[in-house]
Amino acid sequence: MNTVIRKKATICIVGKSGEGKSSLLSAILEKKNLLPSGSFGACTSVITQVEANLNDSNYTAEIEFISKEEWEKELKDLLTVLSDENEDMNEDLFEIAEEKITALYGADADKKTLEELKKYDKYAEIENLLSKETQNSKKISKSDVSEFANDIACYVQNSKSSHGGWFWPIVKSVTIKIPNCRELLEHIVLVDLPGTGDCNKTRDDLWKSKLRECSSVWIVSDINRAITDRDPWSILKHCMEELGPGGECKSINFICTKTDEIDPVAYMRAARLTENQISKDKDQKKMCILHRNELAKTTVKEKFENSEIK
């Protein structure tokens, strides 16, 4: 009997940190708080791939790191940026360098030289993670979803309130496998991608290769910023350029999140809605949500129709 191996469909989810990508994924998977919500910062996202665990009932993660040589070169570059006292220095690059070094090595590490950093305990720990003996990867397996989420947090997000021990700057990608999701994920892979222009070249190249392999792209944006923000539209343009002729992508979807976050009274005033239009006898909040959803959908479609992207 011939067995046909069906290729899995890959859905790539893109958008700025904080736009609700993790919450969207958790809702689809019906696994609350499985994926840490995106934290604020200059550059904190890593490529996270979610698929079904068809082997056992554990939540598992395989964390792939960049090479030791790549990090040594990048660390020197970051320290060079931080030591630049030129008034014309790039503030974005400075913020990224500061955030990466303090995330890994701790508070005030951004003020140290390379030789001083080498004396830190964290420096030896990071060297060990990136050594060839560890095969540049780490595996985590837990039966409890809360314990699993806590264990993977330091590899996929950052904290502004607690410095040191956040390893996302040296992570290339994370593959998470979820049990009891065969019906949903047996033939689908969900890939949460960081925004365009990632500050790590290796991760940025992987971002582009993943995008070219995807069957569908979901561009996620907060409903309040979907129309006015440039970011989702620049991501859409980037997707069109990267996919190009011969790509596997069959559809690009624009998804607005946080639609339930609304003040009905303030929205009615801003949208100039009368009580006749939004009946008091009905759920006012629900009516306002539906009105804003329809308005956003119409406006996004009009903007796309009139854009150079189309």
From TrEMBL:
InterPro entries: Dynamin_N, Nuclear_GTPase_SLIP-GC, P-loop_NTPase. Coiled coil: none annotated. SUPFAM superfamilies: P-loop containing nucleoside triphosphate hydrolases. Residues 11-231 form the Dynamin N-terminal domain. This is Dynamin N-terminal domain-containing protein. It comes from Cirrhinus molitorella. The lineage of its organism: Eukaryota, Metazoa, Chordata, Craniata, Vertebrata.
